[in-house]
Amino acid sequence: MNWGEILQYALFAGSVAAMTTGLVFVLAGAIGVIRLPDFYTRMHAAGVTDTLGAELITLGLILQAQDWQTVAKLLLVGLLVFLTSPTASHAIANAAHRAGHKPRLSRFHPAHPAEAGKASGEGH
Amino acid sequence: MFYGVSLTAILVALWLTLSGSYTLSGDYPIVMGLGVISIVIAVALTFRMRIVDRETVPVAPAPALFGYWSWLGGEIVKANLAVTRLVMKPEIDIEPRLVRVPAQQRSGLGLCVFANSITLTPGTVTVDIEDDGFLVHALDTSFTDPAGFAEMGARADSATDGRRKEVK
């Protein structure tokens, strides 16, 4: 086994690690969208998906790329996501705000899931 | 004129990167020809729309912006971990807040970079633009530290318009 092969394996391991970590954040975002109480708070959870989740998956793909051109294209994809996702988030949030949707500003502290069956409904 | 030349150079580099053919005598000369035609049309249209200025072609602040983005990347990772921790805890305990964040950037570009940075950082989203600041929705009271916003604002300002000489 020469150094070239070792480098290939190292790059592959790094790529798998980056993509797996990215998937964890995508999953966290999805769980957050389900668990959080209202529109604005759910949007924060979705933000986890399209910042660290998307960028880490792009990074994992970059590490697997065979030529510089693929690397450049993937970097452009990453930059595009980096620039457009806040614009889209702001457009959605601003639309909700202008339509008069009021954010819920009280403390949100539902019971532990193990006891949630006893008192159904999350303390609204 | 400087911005027109920069825009053309950026578009040429983009086309060459994405198409991957560099010579007219290659396998697909039409790719090169279409590239030239597209770039000429695109540059002509932007000139006709009179939107070629330092905001649409931000070449001058580009190096400082890349430095700013790498700092912002670190902040985003920290905020992501904080939001993930809040969301994955068995007992969710959050206190959402709407806060006003003052914005004293010198140009529209600086304001735009600052507002988008706030939105890009998970846990805070710019909801509305007001006369002298932003209305920001935060997932929890731990995301509303005024010093953190002030530091991000100052960095966005110096990245887009250079270091502040004196306070006006």
How does this structure look, described?
The complex is a heterodimer of chains A (124) and B (168). Chain A is an all-alpha fold. Chain A has one domain. Chain A is elongated, with a radius of gyration of 20 Å. The mean pLDDT of chain A is 87. Chain B has a 3-stranded antiparallel β-sheet, covered by helices on one side. In chain B, a hairpin with a 2-residue loop joins β2 and β3. In chain B, α1 packs antiparallel against α2, α3 packs antiparallel against α5 and α4 packs across α5. Chain B is elongated and about 65 Å long. At the A-B interface, α1, α2 and α3 of A face α1, α3, α4 and β2 of B.
Content of β-strand of chain B: 5-15%
Overall shape of chain B = elongated
Query: Would you identify the regions of chain A where 5 or more consecutive residues have pLDDT less than 50?
Result: none
Number of strands of chain A: 0
Radius of gyration of chain A: 20 Å
Q: What assembly state would you assign to the polypeptide chains in this entry?
A: heterodimer
- Count of individual helical segments of chain A: 3
Q: Helix amount of chain A, in percent?
A: over 70%
Biggest sheet architecture of chain A: none
List strands and helices in order, with pairings.
The complex is a heterodimer of chains A (124) and B (168).
Chain A: H1 3-35, H2 39-64, H3 68-98
Helix pairs in contact in A: 1-2, 2-3
Chain B: H1 2-19, H2 29-48, H3 62-88, E1 97-102, H4 108-120, E2 124-130, E3 133-138, H5 146-161
Antiparallel strand pairs in B: 1-3, 2-3
